Amino acid sequence: MQVFFDRTLENEFEKIYSKFKSIELNADEAYQADLSYLTKKLQIFDPSPSLCDREDFNSAAIDGSGAESLVSLNDISIHLLTAAFAADTTNFSMGTTKKIDISPPVCTYPEGITRLILLREDKKTEVWDEFKDFILYNYKENLSEVVFRVIKDIVETAYKQKNPGDPLPKLDKETSIRMAAATMNLNLYKDGFDNFSSWMVSPRANAPRGWFEQFREVLEYSVANALLNSKEQFKYIFLDGSMNMLMSPGQKQPRLASNYLLRDINLKAVEKKTCIVAVSKTTTFPFIYRLAQDLEKSLGMEKKWFIRIPTEKRDKYTLNVLKDRPHIPPAYGVTYLFHFSSEVPILRIDFDEKWWLENIYSEDKMKEKENEFEIFQDIDWLARDVRYYGYFFDLAFAHNTTIVRFSDRDDVADRLIDYFVGKGENPKMFIHPRKRLGLM
Length: 440
Hints:
Blueprint: H1 7-26, H2 28-41, E1 43-44, E2 58-73, E3 76-91, E4 96-99, E5 112-120, H3 124-139, H4 143-162, H5 174-183, H6 196-199, H7 208-228, E6 236-240, H8 257-271, E7 275-280, H9 288-299, E8 305-308, H10 312-315, E9 333-339, E10 347-352, H11 353-359, H12 365-381, H13 393-402, H14 406-422, H15 433-436
Parallel strand pairs: 2-6, 6-7
Antiparallel strand pairs: 1-8, 2-3, 3-4, 3-5, 7-10, 8-9, 9-10
Helix pairs in contact: 3-7, 4-5, 4-8, 7-8
């Protein structure tokens, strides 16, 4: 339909704006208290020169994309999934970077993966079987192995925190892990670790979009896993998005299969001395736009700064605006907000808590600040590309490589239909009725 910019639409604008301002006004007192706290905790830092005498390192970034319902036939849908990476090594003495020539075995082309998946409605068992096979094929490990390793680490970490200095019990079987968890009142789901569909949250079998997102995340984490298993040593691996974990109240055990892969790559990264950095361009962090305006007004447009978001457990303080957002910071994560350039909104990054405790945290707060300055100077330097100033260029490269544009999506769909036709199928059954009627 044609949209007419008449008085009716202006009334809609007015109603929406009124709701927007009422949200702001109702939370203003809480926000002002948070602004005062954050301003005191804010760390302004001087960037490293583009040419400097620093130790070079490797970094990589991963992003995923795809096209859901590439081709549909009644209750069957075929989806296109992609994931891509960019990897570079710094050359601080020249003020530039150099692309690393690496292509992990999982990749179907030099810098990424393309996969097709077929989903059918009302076949939950079939979808779960397909999902587990997809993880094994791309991540190169059974989901059951990953789940066991992650839950073991959760229980082991909790035991060390509660019983510092005590020898760890033997945690080599599910029964011994459950016994250790019980001694600490650490709730684990009652069903067996490998009985996934009974305790993991998954989309309905007739919700292909939900499954599409889970399959896509598996593909991205599979690329990260392949990079961690490669011969290259990476100081940083950037992921697009946050490290949010779906957790039930009172539980320490994640509910999504993809969360287990995310925890697993973080555990492997700690062992490999690699920092996983999850970067959110758009975030549900409330009033972040107000924070940007207020801090740019008081500090200037181009000041580089960061703030660690407090938690009740670590800082005995929680931001007022986050009291209804228990997923920020995420479970097993540490969240920072940072500002590198006025051209880019305030970004959020999540670090793995285990990595943060080993590499950033210190009882000596001056040492902790030095550790933070070093990492933010590193990642600021990786956001200096003139095309993406203020944002990590490897993430931009990965995004540009993986994004599936409409023309590409349509081309793949046409070629897929042609392939079916070559096998003797009727092409009309794959074409959406609206398209056949000229309505799209």
